Amino acid sequence: MSREYRHIVRIMGKDIDGSKNLLNGLTNIRGIGASLANAIVKSGNFRRDAIIGNLIDAEIEKIEKIIEDPSSHGIPSFIFNRKKDLESGRDLHLIGPDLELRIKNDVDFMRSIKSWKGVRHSLGLKVRGQRTKSTGRKGRSVGVKKKTLIAQARKK
Question: Are residues 71 and 125 in the same domain?
């Protein structure tokens, strides 16, 4: 097995630039953050600063196996993005389109049961307790336009 450099490496259906190091390259995959990428590197005994373009096929397959089932490779469940999943009851970690679809289904479920978060989602308002008086106005200006008020006062 030769360590031939590849400019683009495909991991879990995502094209990653071969010039990036392993930690930064793994975070380009949707659903994998810095902490999970670090755990993948440690459990697979990879170098943190390894260049992705220099990895051989066996190493890429090992990374994909760890991503598919992180709990069997010693990664703790507090890093996962689906702890105690509603449907299966297990600790899961979803990536890519599976994650996007599950989040959409969760929001639709909250809307259907008319929970507080579901109502806020359906109205397009902030969901997590942020302030709404002064921020999040979506295109409307915050404050008063003084010139228009003076012009209106003169017309009266």
Answer: no
Q: Which parts of the chain register pLDDT below 70?
A: 1-2, 139-153, 155-156
Residue 99 and residue 72 in one domain: no
Q: CA 19, CA 39: separation in Å to the nearest integer?
A: 21
Encoded tokens for 148 = 């228009």
Give residue 116's pLDDT: 92
142 within a domain of the structure (yes/no): no
- Alpha-helix residue ranges (DSSP H) falling in the chain: 22-26, 34-43, 57-68, 96-112, 116-123, 146-155
- Cα separation, 155 vs 80, in Å, equals 63
Q: What is the DSSP string of 43-63?
A: HTT--TT-BGGG--HHHHHHH
* Overall number of domains in the chain: 2
